[in-house]
Amino acid sequence: MKKLVVLTGAGISAESGISTFRDSGGLWEQFRIEDVATPEGWRKNPKLVTEFYNARRKQLLSVEPNFGHIGLVKLEQSFDVTVITQNVDNLHERAGSKSIIHLHGELTKVRSERFDNLIYELSPDKYEITIGDKCERGYQLRPHIVWFGESVPMLEKAIQETSEADIFVVIGTSLNVYPAASLVHYTKPDTPIYIIDPNEININNPNWHYIRKVASEGVKELIDRLNNV
Ligand code: OAD
Q: What is the pLDDT of residues 101-146, one digit of tens each?
């Protein structure tokens, strides 16, 4: 089986009702990155940060995967598929993808602010944490999210997968945030790259195959194209 590696961003979950970050009306128009997505923001106002991620988790309870996520699972019949996602939602899991790398962490998990290896899965009916919730060694729990300025522990694995890809697909990311955006550069020179996005993205490479559609329609077209090569 050929190895298909897919890098996804917020755009793949947009049709499920989760807003993206940088589109008009996106999350970064409503919140300042430095307030809610940096270690400094956490130190300054942990309550605000906790509430921000509690709201994101609450939203997860009312959304469902769309055909963007589901179509990637269907591709597992013909390809060895790995999903590398920048998303912190769990819609790839809920669609049924078997191999998922979360580059920027997971909303459904929290960890000790002192001991990075003390990670806890929240149960779906207890998606909220509050200031005062502690790890087993007595330190405050924080969101299991990679904030700006923090290292990206899953990067090495993502690079490894990308470098082995026979086909690489990018769905719904503005490719604005590094190191995730740099992954495309780790593909083999002859690996075809497909980009699914309804909008123009800031990198235009003539060797890339652009599918200018929303994720659900774009993934349908991708399946047709890949089944005909
Ligand atoms: P962005 O908000 O930067 O980009 C979203 C992309 O999705 C844009 O290129 C849109 O054109 C595209 N898009 C919008 N609707 C779409 C749809 N229905 N189908 C397909 N594509 C669509 O989001 P990301 O690139 O994911 O990190 O942002 C990267 C990181 O920046 C996030 O993981 C997050 C954020 O700050 C952290 O918080 C650490």
A: 999 999 999 999 999 999 999 987 778 999 999 999 999 999 999 9
Atom of ligand 1 nearest to the CA of 104: 39
With cut-offs at 50, 70 and 90, classify the pLDDT of residue 202: low
The CA distance from 146 to 177, in Å, is 12
Give residues (CB < 6 A) around ligand 1. 9-12, 14-15, 20-23, 26, 37, 86, 104, 146, 172-174, 176-177, 197-199, 201, 214-215
The torsion of the CA quartet 44, 18, 122, 38, rounded to 10 degrees, works out to: -20
Distance of alpha carbon 91 from its chain centroid, rounded?
A: 10
CA distance from start to end of the chain: 14
- Ligand 1, atom 32, lies closest to the CA of 86
pTM: 0.96
- Residue 59: enclosing H or E segment and its boundaries? helix 46-60
- Asked if pLDDT for residue 204 goes beyond 70, the answer is no
Task: Report the C-alpha gap between 27 and 93 in whole angstroms.
Answer: 23
Tokens of 29: 């128009």
What is the separation of C-alpha 105 from the centre of its chain, rounded to a whole number of angstroms? 8
Instruction: Assess whether pLDDT exceeds 70 at residue 67.
Output: yes
From ligand 1's centre to the CA of 136, what distance in Å? 35
Tokens for 185?
């550069």
Cα–Cα dist 165/80, whole Å: 9
Question: Which contiguous run of DSSP H or E holds residue 121?
Answer: strand 119-121
> Which position among 104, 144, 185, 209 bears the catalytic label?
104
